[in-house]
């Protein structure tokens, strides 16, 4: 079995879990593919018998049976955009903060890798969203597409249709089109609902709308949401999974569920509701702390 590692050593403290993975692979006779950037950051890793150096992240993913993402949910999003074409299962090791997708703690690495190596895991399929702009360029998001203000303190104006029918003309600080996976990200902070992953829906959540009765909508993801900017000054930014795109014209974006999916590894003792309880501290009685 071949493992590969995706990580950002410039952002996260990955050294200890990284070398723990190497040691486990050494002991258990597994191959670990690491890209040149990580190898240059940790040159001592090259000497490990389990390590094989490849040119870049994409090559390490294409050659691997399992991808190990070390970092936070930002690393998981970055990994998702690499693995979406390969369907390689991803094991997330959390060295960030909440870690909704990267839910293996560094102290659990040996146990997690043993389960994965023995096939004792299930795969949680997470559907991505697809956006197409007015010139036919396509973007993908595991969490969300975001329409937000560029530089002004004033609100932005967006016209939104679903399957060709007008939903609303939104006047707000922004608008989120979220997948079920992204429902616990920016969508949750903006007051949107939590959606069970795998549910075939998209969530449309306005950010600080001018009209207080404007509420989030949950819509089937097999039809298209169209978002158009109506600001004359074109004060709208469009981004996918935190990546902001430059544009010089009014936005006209069509969003629907993508054919691409990301396959997250769930260990035998993990489930989504347990993750919610642990990460959001549901049921915690502060009187007992």
Question: Tags for this entry?
Answer:
six-stranded antiparallel beta sheet; 17 strands; Rossmann fold; 7 helices; 2 domains; Tumour Suppressor Smad4; globular; 289 residues; alpha+beta
How would you describe this protein?
- The protein is α+β, with helices and mostly antiparallel strands.
- The chain folds into two domains: 2-121 and 267-288, Rossmann fold, CATH 3.40.50.10330; 129-259, Sandwich (Tumour Suppressor Smad4).
- The protein contains seven helices and 17 strands.
- A six-stranded antiparallel sheet has the order 7-6-17-14-9-10, with helices on one face. It has a six-stranded antiparallel sheet with strand order 13-12-11-8-15-16, with no helix packed on it. A five-stranded parallel sheet has the order 3-2-1-4-5, sandwiched between helices.
- The protein starts with a strand and ends in a 9-residue tail after the last helix.
Mean pLDDT: 92
CATH class category label of the largest domain: Alpha Beta
Q: Enumerate the spans where pLDDT stays under 50 for 5 or more consecutive residues.
A: none
Widest sheet, order of strands? 7-6-17-14-9-10
Percent helix: 10-25%
Number of helices: 7
Order of helices and strands: EHEHEHEHEHEEEEEEHEEEEEEH
Give the C-alpha Rg.
21 Å
Instruction: Tell me which CATH architecture of the largest domain applies here.
Output: 3-Layer(aba) Sandwich
CATH superfamily of the largest domain: Probable inorganic polyphosphate/atp-NAD kinase, domain 1
Number of strands: 17
Compute the number of structural domains.
2
> How much beta, percentage-wise?
35-45%
Structural class call reads: alpha+beta
CATH topology (level 3) name of the largest domain: Rossmann fold
Whole-Å distance between the termini? 43 Å
Main sheet, how many strands, which sense, barrel?
6 strands, antiparallel
Q: Looking at the structure, what is the overall shape? A: globular
